[in-house]
Amino acid sequence: MVKRSFSIALSAFFLCFMPTALAAGEFVASVSSTQVPLNDTFSLTLTLKDASPKTAPDITTLKQYFLIHSQQNSTNTRIVNGKTSSSVTWKLSLTPKIEGAIQIPPITVATGEGLLATQPMTIHATKGTNLPSVTDSTGLTLTTQVSNSSPYKNEPFIYTATLTSKMPLYNVQSQKMQVEDAIVELVEEPKLEEKYIGGSVLSVVEFSYLITPLKAGTLTIAPIAIQSTIPEKRKGQFGAFFNSHVDPFAIMQGLDPLKPFTLMTDEVRLDVQPPIAEVSPWLPAKDLSLTEQWPSNQTLRVGEPFSRTFVVRAEGLKTTQLPRLEDLQKQQSAFKVYADKPEEQEKVSQGTIHSLRKEQYTLIPQQAGAWVLPEVSISWWDSEKKEKRTSTIPARTVDIQPALVETTPSVAQKSTTQEPIVENRPPIFLYGAIGVLVVALIIALMWAFALKRKIVNLTPHPIAPPKPTIQKAKKERLPDLNPT
After folding, report:
1. Beta carbons of 229 and 246 less than 8 angstroms apart
2. Domain total of the chain
3. How far is Cα 308 from Cα 238, in angstroms, rounded to an integer?
4. Is residue 154 part of a domain?
């Protein structure tokens, strides 16, 4: 009986705590609205309950049909009746790219309990107006323009999106442009300017892109989103203070709050023309010229280097597309050719790209005589006149003179030039000569002194009589008669 009561109590204990032990994490998604005007924004909220995320949710699947403007996350922990629950929330601001029913696919997140996923959802994007929640008094317009509606393959063109407004614009941003089967480059950073258009001063921002198609056929430029804010008149101070889109510090300073908006450009389709087989390498351009810089007064001799410079200018091509002429220069066997680093320039002006490439070569003649510098030519396709053209530098014949031979001076020339060479000797030779003379003089003086002594020793001298020796008498000391 005791054992049975103990087993019942143990079972009751596990039943009480089993829901808590077996409770699994939950990952859910919700939207602020399922009916969203095209080009307008809505909120997508992702909530993870009773689980610890290892990483942020994977939202890469959303980028196909939505623009992601911002993302915020927060953590919440609650304790109710001794029971602890936690949740992590991610809030995203999205804008639909296309019209119609759009499915939000399952979004996954890695947690300590494994991989969790949300349920798929569907929203409906209606066309509506191109200016969501913006009155006509602002004069907002967004236009697009391409410099060439039917470019050839590898022929760059300019795509420009222009935003204008009667109201001042702040915090203007553009979505990164990506075009399939094309290279897209931003020409320059957009600048906000004020222009006088149609009798009014408007705020204007231009986004210019250089697009190079890499494939013939239909090229589709998808819509891009441009975001900005404009001042909005306040209806009521307290109502505007609690508006999530405005700055409360600006209200306290008496400034108008800023209202955000998002505009989408229209989709653009272009027909890219295929390359012409007769032109190889393929160079489509509006214009291309080839010039040579050749000094007319230079004298060419064997072993003496001289320069040859070519300048290629193109309209409608990038500097990286301009041909190199180095291989054409090295085909000359009578010269040694060395190529200098080329100079390149590129700029966009009036909707067209202009490029320049300057190549300079140093040639050293190896043999004397008349030699021909071969013709240099570039074949390219005129995209405006629809014809093949060739820019040519004609062949040039140069006369190479023999190298200068150094002549040996004659005997008469040596004699005439010997004296100034002696006069112009460095002082070290003069000091050496003086030193030799001083040493010779010292030796001569020493020899003369030694000779004089030898002569003196050989001369006879008279013998002088001996001097008499005088001996003084020795004085004897008397005894002291008066001792003290």
Report:
1. no
2. 3
3. 77
4. yes
Domain that holds residue 372: 284-401
Q: Which residue has the higher pLDDT, 1 or 300?
A: 300
Q: Is 250 helix (H, G, I), strand (E, B) or coil?
A: helix
Q: Do the beta carbons of residue 88 and residue 72 sit within 8 Å?
A: no
Q: Note whether residue 83 is domain-resident.
A: yes
User: Given CA atoms 176, 179, 181, 187 in this order, what sign does their dihedral have?
Assistant: negative
Q: Kindly tell me the sign of the dihedral angle through the C-alpha atoms of 29, 33, 35, 41.
A: negative
Residues in contact with 376: Cβ distance below 8 Å, sequence separation at least 6, in sequence order: 290, 292, 310, 325, 328, 392, 393
pLDDT band, very low/low/confident/very high, at 249 (cuts 50, 70, 90): very low
Per the listing, tokens 């049909």 go with 65
Does 150 share its domain with 251? Answer: yes
**Rounded to an integer, what distance in angstroms lies between the CA atom of residue 236 and that of residue 276?**
66
The dihedral region occupied by 369, where left means phi > 0, alpha psi between -120 and 50, and beta the remainder, is left
pTM of the entire structure?
0.58
Rounded to 5°, angle at Cα 298 from 293 and 299: 140
C-alpha 183/C-alpha 212 separation (Å) is: 5
Q: pLDDT of 441-460, one tens digit each? A: 899 888 888 888 777 776 65
